[in-house]
Write a structure and sequence with these properties.
Blueprint: E1 8-18, E2 21-27, E3 40-43, E4 46-53, E5 57-63, H1 64-69, E6 80-85, E7 104-114, E8 117-123, E9 137-140, E10 143-151, E11 156-161, H2 163-167, E12 179-184, H3 186-197
Antiparallel strand pairs: 1-2, 1-6, 2-5, 3-4, 3-6, 4-5, 7-8, 7-12, 8-11, 9-10, 9-12, 10-11
Amino acid sequence: MFTGLIKDIGIIKKINSITEGKEFIIEAPKLTSQIQVDDSIATNGVCLTAIAVDNSSFKVQLIHTTLEKSNLGKLKEGSKVNLELALRANDRLGGHFVQGHINTVGTISNMESQGKNVDITIHYPASYRKYILKEGSIALDGISLTISDVIDSTGDFMVSIIPHTYENTTLCQKTIGDSVNIEVDMLAKYIENLNKYA
């Protein structure tokens, strides 16, 4: 379980292709002292397990399903990723509950400065419209954000990014046409499931 508050930006140092998918070695010297083998680390919002750790980096394995369902399969050596360690039971919950289970991938359709903030518009698959709520929570590449507007005519939603979030996540490197991992609010999924089988 995560909160969607990014703790560091890691750099993919090495990508190894294996039968089961890929292995990433991610450089993150700020976090490695806090990571042990078997720990969960949200990487662009995807919950991955550390299988090896050294002084400045950790290794994770990505199965084919993860590579196909998220934007991690498009990353290359040198790519930067948002990182968050798993929530401790005694931590503050500053964002919202994020599982690290990506639901779909969206595409940035517009980016526009509003004073010091940046409004980012995301185009997403129509089948996820029922989870998209103005002022509702959403995680984009693992970042806990609030939906500021929903534009049904184009199949988009908008998030407004404050300078601190923009500068301390990979959002500052994004451009129109880039993909983002989307995890919708888990509470909405549970409510949908309860209604379905009630």
